[in-house]
Amino acid sequence: MVQTLSRTTDKSYGLCLAMDKIFYTDTEKNVWAAAADGNSEAVLISDQLESPRGCAWDGESLVYIADRTANGIYVFPGPMANLVATNLTRAADLEDAFGLALFSAAGRLVPSLALMAWAPLAALAAVTARAF
Question: Which of 7, 21, 108, 129 has the largest CB neighbor count within 10 A?
């Protein structure tokens, strides 16, 4: 069954599920969130970005958003018990950041950040090392 969770935007570049919340970006500067069950209105989490794109949850307490125009990766606490606007923190610099994926190496509790963008491999390794 397909269900509409929100009508805040016609297009989204980033979408991530964080427990019972869905976080997503629109085509402007916004990050939104809604309950995954569709039983609440979408909430504007942030309007601080320039061109938000990818979204990824670390499986614990942080949501990462790629900002293509600002050339960076931003982070905020999530999932939230109550969806509210929050400040984002710049976690890493990456030219033309677009998509995000998080992975955890065997035996490591803290996930490593893997960034998918049109950037040299050396730049990706540098960002990964600095992010954590």
Answer: 21
